[in-house]
Amino acid sequence: MELQDETGRVLVVRQLPEGIAGITKLHALVAEHARDQAGEDVDTGQVVVGIETDRGPWVEALIAAGYQVYAINPLQASRFKERYGTSRAKSDKGDAHALADMVRIDRAQLRPVAGDTEPAQAIKVVARAHQTMVGERTRTMLRLRAALREYFPAALIAYDELGLAGADTLELLQLAPAPDMAAALEMPVIAAALKRARRRSVAAKAEGIAAALRTEQLGRSRTVTAAYAAIVTSLAAVITIFNAQIKHLERQVESHFREHPAAEIYLSQPGIGVITGARVLAEFGDDPERYASAKARKNYAATSPITRASGKSRVVIARFVHNDRLVDALRAQAFSAINGSPGARAYYDKQRAREADHGAALRQVANRLVGILHGCLKTGTIYNEHTAWSHHLNIAAA
Fold this sequence. Notes:
Blueprint: E1 2-4, E2 10-13, H1 19-33, E3 48-51, H2 57-64, E4 68-71, H3 74-81, H4 92-105, H5 118-151, H6 153-158, H7 167-175, H8 179-183, H9 187-196, H10 202-213, H11 222-258, H12 263-268, H13 274-284, H14 294-301, E5 306-310, E6 313-317, H15 324-340, H16 342-353, H17 358-379, H18 385-397
Parallel strand pairs: 3-4
Antiparallel strand pairs: 1-2, 5-6
Helix pairs in contact: 3-4, 5-11, 5-13, 7-9, 7-11, 9-10, 11-13, 13-15, 14-17, 15-16, 15-17, 16-17, 16-18
């Protein structure tokens, strides 16, 4: 930690401990050194803090103390340090000096930490946890698929329609993880697993699964098969736990999201359900002063393009530095919207007619949807298809 005055003179440099002891020491140092020219104590609102994160107990404690807190992207700090030298040397002391200089010199170019409400922060916590767990389940499923391909490819064919994350698939894999065990499964056992998973056409599905499991295939030695079977049993058990915990988190996401005052506006948007809406709200936050305009919100969402111009060269490209979680949520919304909103579909078709590929056209739809969402949040009104897409719907009708 480095403390500077408004002229850039270094007042104190300290390494602070974590937790309450660290924040208490910081407050004491600020109180000791924060004096104006007349020697009077400086109001806490005049203390400016730069920190490389926008969340956590330290950030909340700094905001609660009344300081002006700026969350600085580590990439910004890295580029800023290049004015001191190009060696790319790194140290905590050097990082602290750069952050202090940034908030003193370039504060107008930085984004203050958003004053999100507690409900919005809670949504962010559970929505991110849910998304992370879904990703972990997907990675575990890929490991399971890879293991089955190595010694039991017939299982991939047999359970393809059910999906590897299906409760019945996981039950049967744990019950019979080896080819010989699976081939010996009786029809009533398979049918019972399908019924517990609430499948339709149980008899036909069970017959197809049994037939696929009993087909001849290239196998491995008994010892190697036993080793793979142990791995598959463990992976199936892990995915089963993931399924249960993901459902638990889904309920938490829905509970927190529906209690938020802006939930109705988010859910009125095309292509947005509870989970996607919670993710979008979580990443945008609910501070009404954070985005000065729809363009500012679009820039943060990375749906608006950037221009690189030099001399006679001018290139418009997509933004590659962005909030991955927000981009994923907006892409999912745009994909659903073009299938459920006539206006979004007309706008998508218009972009495709201009020879934009699917990804670029979808990004333009997402950009338009972000602008619509900004307008709805600003005015406190729910989404209206005709108001949002009147021009494009008229073109489509013509």
